[in-house]
Amino acid sequence: MATWLESQFSLNGKKALVTGSSKGIGAAIAIAMAKAGADIVLVGRSEESLKATRDAIEKVGKKSEVLICDVQSKAEISEAFKGIDQLHVDVLVNNAGSISRSPALETTLEDWNRIIDINLNSVFQISQLCAKSMLSRGNGRIINIASLLSFQGGINVPAYTASKHGVAGVTKALANEWGAKGLNVNAIAPGYISTDNTEALRNDPDRSASILARIPLGRWGNPDDLAAAAVFLASPASSYINGEILKVDGGWMGR
């Protein structure tokens, strides 16, 4: 029989849906939630891209399902999620994201719109679709992946910065509307994490050194550093946390 502490962090009997779960942060969160007891719905652009994550989930004895969807497309989201009520999702993790690096004067509107569609519009659309079922049952969790650029302006990433400020805002707005109805909405703001999105920074010796110099823990983060935070926000242990943007950044924002 589980102790009180174990039950507070358990996801047994829950089902979690994670977008962008083929690799990186999304894969780490999906696998961690499976280890905590949840069955997982994986969302990605191809079934093959999700195979490694699916294998890892099934290796720990949990079930997995797949939704094929490019979250840049509103039409694909509508089609892929049309049966979402029947899946009875308890936890939604809006993780899928992309970044584009260019000075503001060189950023095309096409690229701007692509980043906003992936990073922000999909978050709102998928949250709407999943929340209907959660609200009808009177409980659920939505966890959005924000960024340190939800608080700062950054350099040469205007669309990404705008989108992540938007993620922080929509997290608070939905938390205000849905909290009293049993649906907690929070976000995680990762610091500098070793993923494909930060490869260019890590490969630039000067930029990487300047980043590390500001991080009190003295290292780049990794996707597993975020996984436990996501499990916490999905679990009973965080039942009185709502509208929070949780920074997991090694202390960067405290400097």
Description:
A 7-stranded parallel β-sheet has the order 3-2-1-4-5-6-7, sandwiched between helices. The protein has one domain: NAD(P)-binding Rossmann-like Domain (Rossmann fold). The model has no long low-confidence stretch (mean pLDDT 96). With 255 residues, it is α/β, with parallel strands linked by helices. It has helices at residues 4-8, 24-35, 51-59, 74-80, 84-87, 109-137, 158-178, 199-202, 205-214, 223-234, and strands spanning 15-19, 39-44, 64-68, 91-94, 140-145, 183-190, 245-248.
Strand order of the largest sheet: 3-2-1-4-5-6-7
Strand content: 5-15%
The low-confidence parts are: none
> For the CA atoms, what is the radius of gyration?
18 Å
- Determine the structural class based on helices, strands and strand pairing: alpha/beta
What is the average per-residue confidence, as pLDDT, rounded to a whole number?
96
- The quaternary state of the protein chains shown equals single chain
Treating each run of at least 4 consecutive H or I residues as one helix, how many helices?
10
Largest sheet, described in full? Answer: 7 strands, parallel
CATH class: Alpha Beta
Helix % is: 40-55%
The total count of strands amounts to 7
Q: How many domains, as an integer?
A: 1
Overall CATH architecture:
3-Layer(aba) Sandwich
